[in-house]
């Protein structure tokens, strides 16, 4: 048995982007990312669009075949690219699931909600009879706030929030231990977002689930996560306890992200200082040498251009990758 439920080591995911032979180019979507998740914990993953959050989650579940790195689940090696070890995924699909970002694109419009939820039950042969299958489907729908009347309807008959609940019911149907939540609230109205986050927390308590919760909204991630990891251009730049990260960020990119969180108190909002980054995000097709954040960092120097900063534990449980943490704080 492993100490951690999830262990990701030096994960890399490159996508070919034209060229031949020595001139072949790759988009480095995820480049040397490492972290772990304890059983029953929620790890939040934040960063701007295109930083590799979703790709990290999908590569872990082998929805993409990873370019490099190692991933173990509950002590079992799911893949170790360097050693050419790849597990048969069918038994693990039952234990690891994903809730997709877009509730409009992730559900088959030709299938009823009952069949969408029941498909995984059929694949993994979890029902002993038709009645048992039906009972399991209704139980899952009720768990996410829907009822038996919804089972015979089609996805187009539902609102965005209801569709996302169907996607969650589909993931829960096989009683998984780990769920990758890929921006499950970003396509929903603000009024619905809080309901869905509260539902995720209730389900975690009832079913003992472990989450990788991917999102843009740091305030939402702070609410649901035990720890938060921050990604920039395919690399993890900081990882810490959620309240520790928000109260005492060490990396200049994390400081900028946190300064952008809206504050409800007008007086406090006026006093808070917004850290605006200069320039644009570089292309993952041609990332900067050394530290990928150096082109937008106010503390960057020659050392940042020459060598990539090491991923190290600065304080107990607080990891960061920056040459100038002392200068930044």
Question: Can you tell me about this structure?
Answer:
It is a single chain. With about 325 residues, the protein is α/β, with parallel strands linked by helices. Helix content is about 30%, strand content about 25%. The protein contains twelve helices and 13 strands. It has helices spanning about 55-60, 90-95, 115-125, 130-145, 160-170, 190-205, 220-225, 240-245, 250-260, 265-270, 300-305, 325-329, and strands spanning about 5-15, 25-35, 40-45, 70-75, 75-80, 85, 95-100, 180, 210-215, 225-230, 235-240, 310-315, 320. The chain has an eight-stranded mixed sheet with strand order 7-8-9-3-10-11-13-12, sandwiched between helices. Strands 2-1-4-5-6 form a five-stranded antiparallel sheet. A hairpin with a 4-residue loop joins strand 5 and strand 6. Helix 3 packs across helix 4 (about 130-145), helix 3 runs parallel beside helix 5 and helix 4 (about 130-145) packs across helix 5. The longest helix has 18 residues, at about 190-205. The protein is globular and about 70 Å long. About 40% of the residues are buried. The model has no long low-confidence stretch (mean pLDDT about 90).
What key phrases describe this protein's structure?
single chain, globular, alpha/beta, 12 helices, 5-stranded antiparallel beta sheet
List the helices and strands and how they pair.
Layout: E1 6-16, E2 26-37, E3 42-46, H1 53-60, E4 68-73, E5 76-80, E6 85-86, H2 90-93, E7 96-99, H3 113-123, H4 130-143, H5 160-172, E8 178-182, H6 190-207, E9 210-214, H7 218-224, E10 227-232, E11 235-241, H8 242-247, H9 252-259, H10 266-271, H11 302-306, E12 312-315, E13 318-320, H12 325-328
Helix pairs in contact: 3-4, 3-5, 4-5
């Amino acid at each position: 048995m492993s100490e951690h439920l999830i262990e990701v080591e030096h994960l890399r995911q490159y996508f070919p982007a034209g060229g031949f032979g020595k001139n072949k180019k790759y988009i480095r979507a995820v480049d040397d990312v490492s972290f772990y998740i304890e059983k029953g914990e929620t790890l939040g993953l934040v960063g701007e669009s295109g930083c590799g959050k979703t790709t990290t989650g999908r590569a872990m579940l082998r929805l993409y075949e990873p370019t490099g790195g190692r991933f173990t689940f509950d002590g079992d090696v799911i893949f170790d690219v360097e050693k050419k070890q790849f597990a048969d995924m069918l038994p693990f699909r039952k234990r690891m699931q994903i809730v997709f970002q877009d509730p409009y694109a992730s559900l088959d419009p030709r299938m009823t909600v009952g069949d969408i939820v029941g498909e995984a039950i059929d694949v993994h042969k979890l029902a002993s009879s038709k009645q048992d299958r039906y009972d399991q489907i209704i139980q899952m729908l009720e768990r996410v706030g829907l009822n038996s009347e919804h089972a015979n309807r089609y996805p187009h008959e539902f609102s965005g929030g209801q569709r996302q609940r169907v996607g969650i019911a589909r993931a829960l149907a096989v009683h998984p231990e780990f769920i990758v939540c890929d921006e499950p609230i970003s396509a929903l109205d603000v009024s619905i977002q809080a309901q869905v986050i509260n539902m995720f927390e209730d389900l975690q308590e009832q079913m003992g689930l472990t989450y990788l919760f991917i999102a843009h909204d740091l305030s939402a991630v702070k609410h649901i996560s035990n720890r938060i990891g921050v990604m920039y251009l395919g690399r993890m730049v900081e990882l810490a306890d959620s309240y520790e990260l928000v109260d005492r960020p060490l990396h200049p990119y994390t400081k900028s992200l946190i300064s952008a969180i809206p504050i409800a108190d007008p007086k406090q909002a006026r006093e808070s200082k917004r850290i605006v980054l200069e320039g644009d995000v570089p292309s993952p097709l041609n990332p900067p040498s050394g530290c990928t954040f150096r082109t937008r960092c106010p503390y960057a120097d020659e050392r940042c251009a020459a060598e990539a900063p090491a991923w190290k534990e600065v304080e107990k449980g607080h990891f960061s990758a920056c040459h100038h943490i002392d200068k930044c704080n």
